[in-house]
């Protein structure tokens, strides 16, 4: 026969076992919740780290691209400045040679060639007033020659006007028709400035490679 004391002991044992089971379940639930939160926290942290890394990478790439872009602009400016420098040097030498050319026998043939091309363009405007721009020196020296060449196969009322900017060649204008043809050496050089600069720079590069 089970005594009251034994029943009480058995009751406490069962109670303890029941509480141990509940405690274990609660601890397990807490452990699961903690594990879930920890995993979520780690996932959020990993995501945040990746976002920070991606932002830093994009920022670095942007800075690099900006730096390269600025470098290209600086290099381009330096190249243009160098071209301009050597263009000025070239033009100084060219002007020296031009003075010699204008004084040479070949210059008259050069004028004749220019006049032929101008007359071909304005021949349909015969009998109009034709204003010819020349340097002061060329007017004194070649005005009769120019007039004769123009009217050799056409008929214009020709007058002359000195232009201090013209160093050689000539320009022709028919004001009533709003026509002007600039075949001065100045205009030819200006029209071909970029080509001349590029040619000079290419020659310099060849010199660097050969030197």
Question: What is the topology?
Answer:
Blueprint lengths: L3 H99 L3 H17 L6 E6 L1 H15 L6 E6 L6 E6 L4 E6 H7 L1 H18 L1
Parallel strand pairs: 1-2
Antiparallel strand pairs: 1-3, 3-4
Helix pairs in contact: 1-5, 2-3
User: Main beta sheet: strand number and arrangement?
Assistant: 4 strands, mixed
CATH class: Alpha Beta
- How big is the Rg? 47 Å
What would you call the structural class?
alpha+beta
Kindly report the name of the CATH homologous superfamily.
Answer: ATP synthase, E subunit, C-terminal
Number of DSSP E strands: 4
Number of domains: 1
Q: Give the distance, in angstroms, between the N- and C-terminal Cα atoms.
A: 122 Å
Secondary-structure element series? HHEHEEEHH
The share of residues in extended strands comes to 5-15%
The share of residues in helices is over 70%
**What order do the strands of the largest sheet run in, or round the barrel if closed?**
2-1-3-4
Helix segment count? Answer: 5
Provide the CATH topology: hypothetical protein PF0899 fold
Question: Any idea what the CATH architecture is?
Answer: 2-Layer Sandwich
Low-pLDDT windows of residues: none
Shape: rod-shaped
Average pLDDT over all residues: 80
